[in-house]
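Revision sheet: structure tokens.
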Amino acid sequence: MNGPCFNLTGLTRPMVALDYWSDAELNRDGAVLQYSIDGGQNWEIIGPTPGVPDRDEGINWYNSTGIVGKPGNQKTGDYGWSGRTAGWRNARFKLDMIPDTERDQVRLRISFGSEDANSGVFDGFAFDNVFVGNKTRNVLVEHFTSADAGSAIGDGVINGLYDDQLALRANYGGESDFEDVQYHISSAVSDPLYKDNTIDPGARSVFMGVSAPPTTLMDGLRNSKFTGKYTQITYVEIDRRSLVDPQILMQLDTATLDPAAVTNISNKIMPKITLTAQQDFNTPLLLNIALVEDVGSNRNVLRKLLFGPDGMTITNSIAKGEAILRDKGIIEITAPVSNPYGLTMIAFIQDKNTKEIYQSVSMKVKHKIGSVITGLNEEPSEAAVITEQINVYPNPASRSFYFGLPDNINGDYYKWRMSDQRGVIVRESNFSSMINNELEVDISTLANGMYIIVIEGPDKSVAYRKLMVMNHH
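Predicted:
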């Protein structure tokens, strides 16, 4: 079955998707999708490079090799869909194998091949709902790193993946399937980039269950396949994830600030995000924007989470097709900025319970400076010093734990809250009932696991603690 000519020159991340149904003798009959750039004189396979040993790429893309019926008269491999599917399946694959200088007239065809001597009665192959266009999912890679040697190797792997994608598509847009945020978190090695902002990367690492660098996550997925190792984030896996339709579409923009209303617009920004649901949502969503900068050889360093360390929670139900607008007003960039022209915003939205990221989008930022002068350390407030001095013990804890408080604290003005790894608050109060600079907290009814404690001072200074609960029931 030959299709019409397609002009793919306007596509920056081209893909094809189709529904297929197969009722063919396994490995003897089958179908293949091919393309031609010379009017149908020669046909090439759409799929993994012929001959590669591991052909597990794309989504539901071919399940057989050496098909006796030789679909499409392939030069090698005789790949394709074969066997019985017992229903419709959706298959997807990138179109990057089509030469970027020959994309103005591309023909596609489905070719079916069958051998003469079938051992049974089969109905053949059917397909429907063919889509040729751009990928719409932008994958987010979150790389938790530090200044140690092991993290530096991971940095190089992630940066190399990004550079390779830009080089692959340099002639038609130079777009990557993913953006990455690199959070510099605490480790045994001193890291100046971590000291620039300890709160935002620390809060994100706690929420995502990251205990040490290097740890790398793709769209928040944690399972037997993705355990946090940067070696698991490969070109094939990023491509496969990018082929999946996003559950939410996002549009990121910034409002123009009025100089008459804002004293220093160069260190303030007002991002706005429009979310359009592609399905019904009845569970909490978490929205945030990472402001990142290339600092020396360090790429996409998180400077600030613009919607705060905990992000913006969306609790109301959203119907499929519904569009909502979210912003937090004018935000001051209270973080060092080395290059005022080298900032990027990366917005992302995720399920607050499962942590899966549904979509992300990036945008370059016009000239912005940080409120903190690069290279100088601003003196912390008295309240900030006190919050950092508050201890949590024992850790791990069973049935109860204690806050250890400094002598000069007024417990009425300092607050704390304790959340599980879903972000659900399980305990909260202030320190007004402390006795002899100690406050006991009952945790006997809590499930075992890691919890996050946020301590807030009267000047909004914040300190974070992790507590492992190990109740013996």
